[in-house]
Structures are given as structure tokens and as C-alpha cells.
Amino acid sequence: MSNTPGLPVGVWTKAKASGDNGGSCVEVMRRADDSVLVRDTKDQGSGPVLSFTHAEWSAFLDGAGKGEFDLS
Questions:
Q1: Cα(26)–Cα(6) distance, integer angstroms
Q2: Which of 3, 35, 52, 70 has the lowest CB atom count within 10 Å?
Q3: Which of 21, 22, 19, 57 is nearest to 37 (CA)?
Q4: Cα(30)–Cα(61) distance, rounded to whole angstroms?
């Protein structure tokens, strides 16, 4: 679980920068079974939940941090 530091196990978490804007965010949950779940805050109950391994999630965060997904 060291690949996702600071993210608690079994708790849905959204970015601090999203503030009270709960309808326009995604939430992330780190699980003990080597997965990271992602869901839309607008559709928490019945919407889809994406599942990634810790390695996949870390690679995504690394790419996002480097600007690989920036639209320009």
C-alpha cells in the first residue's frame, strides 16, 4: 500500500481542493486487496465504480503530475 500514501484504507476520499462542491468531483478509495476504486460523487449509490491496481493508480497519478493528460 505504499504506492498510495496518505489515502486511508476503506474510506472514500475526494480532493481537498473540491471543497463543498460535492457534485463535480470524483472520490477514491484504497482497498487492502491491492485495488483503488474511483467513483463520481454525483452518482455514489448506483453509478459505476472503476477499479485499478495500486501500480496502475500510481502510474496515472505520476502521468497527471507530469502533465501527460493536459489538453493543449
A1: 17
A2: 70
A3: 57
A4: 14
Average pLDDT of span 5-19: 75
3-state class of 22 per DSSP?
helix
Confidence label for 2 from pLDDT (cuts 50, 70 and 90): very low
The pTM (predicted TM-score) of the whole model is: 0.74
The number of angstroms, rounded, from the C-alpha of 31 to the middle of its chain's C-alpha atoms is 11
CA distance 6 to 8: 6
* d(C-alpha 23, C-alpha 6), whole Å: 23
Q: How far apart are CA 41 and CA 4, in angstroms?
A: 20
